[in-house]
Amino acid sequence: MMAEKGGYKHFMHKEIHEQPRAIADTLRGRMLLTEGDVHFETWNLTQEQVQTFTKVTILACGTSWHSGVAGKHMIESLARLPVEVELASEFRYRDPIVEKSHLVIAISQSGETADTLAAFKEAKRLGAHTMAICNVIGSAMTREANLHVLTNAGPEIGVASTKAFTTQLVTLYLLAVKLGRMRGTLSVEGAQEHLTHLTQVPKMIEDVLKCEPQVKRVAREFMNAQDFLFLGRGPMHPVALEGALKLKEISYIHAEGYAGGEMKHGPIALIDEKMPVVVIAPKQPHIAYEKIIGNIEEVRARGGKVIAILDEDDNQADTLADHVIRIPAACALLAPVVATIPLQLLAYHVAEMRGNDVDQPRNLAKSVTVE
Ligand code: G6P
């Protein structure tokens, strides 16, 4: 069993460390740098079809829903198509508006989640073009879809999703570039620039994994906390949601992810000296850096403990935080991939230190095939 885990104690830990390789596999053969284009093996949409799309609807659950929220930022920014991200379990019970000009994308690691599959079938019945982004080849969603794109993360055993999430993000980025080129919102040079950023991601993930000893120290200090708050703005908002979900799934500590600007509308009331707040604040123009720094100050003023995720060269915010975890600077839309890694490690180490069954947390299943 230890051999299957490659020397790691848990599959989740192994899968966290597999991410540089998994992401390289997601990218392999798909980036056409010279042409400034993306090649998906199964792609079957014509330029005319893509140009008639008026909206993208993303359907997903759990961690996959978080990658959908990040994907919204990517597709809206690069392809200038409005994107709505729907919880699959809500979508089908509320007479959704679906038209033939809509592209409906299901995101699912397993390709079998009952709520996502049912919502996806409903969207197809209503006449939308359907695309599945899945990790499991031959899964129900890939069979149901007009078009499917595989994330190629390799099998994910740990119930808490890690490499499936980051490979979904990278796949969505590739898709945003592809749609941008086909819709004419991205030039060849623009696409080349985005693809060049993508080629750097596996190495960046290798580098960010080196923060593990520091994350472990943070985990030890806060392993007995009762609550955690995660804050992020813009593309870092879904990272905050995912950081909170990872922690609650395996450590059983109550955690909430919030968009930084919403803190004053509620969570600020919870902050006291017992409350660790993870602030995800890479220095990117889109991420309203100054505003998130304002959030750090608000937390500190109320005695809360700040764990800040900052770019490696950020010397402005580090004096404000109680703990700083540094990540390599990535462009705004790819920073979620990099910034997620320390949060996965934090959840893992807190759960491990608490003696929990990390790979099989109580009450959760890897694939939920009941509605
Ligand atoms: C379960 C898993 C989560 C996962 C969610 C959606 O709740 O425990 O890790 O994010 O299902 O799964 P999917 O396979 O559709 O991505």
TrEMBL record:
Subcellular locations according to the entry: Cytoplasm
Residue ranges constituting the SIS domain according to the UniProt record: 46-185, 218-361
Annotated catalysed reactions: D-fructose 6-phosphate + L-glutamine = D-glucosamine 6-phosphate + L-glutamate
Active site: K366 (for fru-6p isomerization activity)
EC number: 2.6.1.16
Domain of life: Bacteria
A GO biological process held by the record: UDP-N-acetylglucosamine metabolic process
Molecular function as annotated in GO: carbohydrate derivative binding; glutamine-fructose-6-phosphate transaminase (isomerizing) activity
UniProt key word Cytoplasm: yes
Keywords: Aminotransferase, Cytoplasm, Glutamine amidotransferase, Repeat, Transferase
A Gene Ontology term for the protein's cellular component: cytosol
Enzyme class of the recorded protein, top EC level: transferase
Function field: Catalyzes the first step in hexosamine metabolism, converting fructose-6P into glucosamine-6P using glutamine as a nitrogen source.
Subunit structure: Homodimer.
UniProt protein name: Glutamine--fructose-6-phosphate aminotransferase [isomerizing]
UniProt gene name: glmS
